[in-house]
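Summary for the funding panel

The consortium committed to producing paired sequence-structure records for every protein in the target list. Below we show the first two records in order, beginning with the earlier of the two.
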Amino acid sequence: MIRELETGKERNLFDEPTSQLSWGRDWSPDDKRIALRRGTPDGVDEVVLVNTKGSSSGLRVRYRGNVSSHVSWSPGTDQLVVGIYLPNNGPRHLHLLDPNSRQRPVEIPEQDPAYDYCDGALSPDGKQVAFGFKPHVGPR
């Protein structure tokens, strides 16, 4: 749902009924798309890009996999930061994801495998990332 603050007017972001939305929405730098994480009925997470006019105007599943936490859009570099769990019940690490290509997410280097990293936010120039972290405690 999108609400215009000045008028209170609301419109649905998704044209089809969905109860599997999750958290971590973020606007694209050009205000035309929103990136978010959602769960699917088959239990897979997706990073979805949806047109702010509604999903009938554009919806793209950019990544399917074991996604965690917030999806963040860098204002200056047009990249997404996504937390993705590593295979075999490994920790979640932050990855960069190009919203405009089909390339696989690229893990941000130098993350300690003993920690879970989440809620990354790139600086406008794309040279720094702010994040939360905690020790990884095994299978979730």
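The next record, for a separate protein in the list, is shown here:
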Amino acid sequence: MPLNKMLLEAYFKKLRMPQAAKTYESLAREAADNNLGYEEYLLGVLEQEIHQRENNRIQRGIKQAAFPVIKTLDSFL
């Protein structure tokens, strides 16, 4: 395994950024294919991490609430 890849994965782990660790390679390829700069690439990686954290927070809240039945707005119509 290349040193850069090992370092990146170690840094993502230390910073507790699991979603970024999963997606950085595919986003790097996509950025290269679309001639995106470093800032756009980094923005994409961080957006993925933030999105996943928000989803995890919502799921934790739902689980902690211990609702007897999960309902959506569609079920009220």
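Regarding this second record: The helical segments are 3-14, 18-33, 38-65. Residues 3-76 form one domain.
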